[in-house]
Amino acid sequence: MALDLLPRFVGYWEIVGGLLLFLGLFARPAAAISCVVAVAAYVYGAAPRGVWPIRNGGNETLLYALVFAYIAVAGAGAWSLDRLTKTLRIRHRGEVRPATSGTFIRSK
After folding, report:
1. How far apart are CA 83 and CA 85, in angstroms?
2. Residue-wise pLDDT tens digits, 51-80
3. Which of 53, 47, 18, 57 is nearest to 34 (CA)?
4. Are the C-beta atoms of residues 37 and 18 closer than 8 Å to each other?
5. How are the residues of the chain apportioned to helix, strand and coil, as percentages rounded to the nearest 5?
6. What local confidence, expressed as pLDDT, does residue 51 receive?
7. Phi/psi zone of residue 2: left (φ > 0), alpha (ψ -120 to 50 degrees), beta?
């Protein structure tokens, strides 16, 4: 089986998207793009060899596409950098800071 069925940028995206998903940073868009890439890989690489994924060698590709679709819908999870940045933004918004006139206001 040829290793160069898909364009070169797909390999670059697998490196970048895999790193983003591992860190949990921009996980939803990275998973959505990875899902589209996995479906394209299935259609381009495995589907021409037959109808059934178990016989055409595309079952792992479809499994990856489903996992990426789940992450795109559900999000990265509790231990992700997305959750950490969201928590830090919420804490920063609720912080009390001094106003220019000498009174204290609550930031929004």
Report:
1. 6
2. 888 899 899 999 999 999 999 999 998 899
3. 18
4. no
5. 65, 5, 30
6. 87
7. beta
| 14 phi/psi in degrees, rounded to 5 | -60, -35
**DSSP codes of every residue in 15-38:** HHHHHHHHHTSSHHHHHHHHHHHH
Q: Which domain holds residue 90?
A: 8-106
Whether 53 is covered by a domain: the verdict is: yes
In this prediction, residue 4 carries a pLDDT of 67
Rounded to 10 deg, the angle between the 8-23 and 27-41 helix axes is: 140
67 domain-assigned: yes
User: Position of tokens 């899902």?
Assistant: 35
Query: Which element (helix H / strand E) includes 65?
Result: helix 59-74
Position 57 in a domain: yes
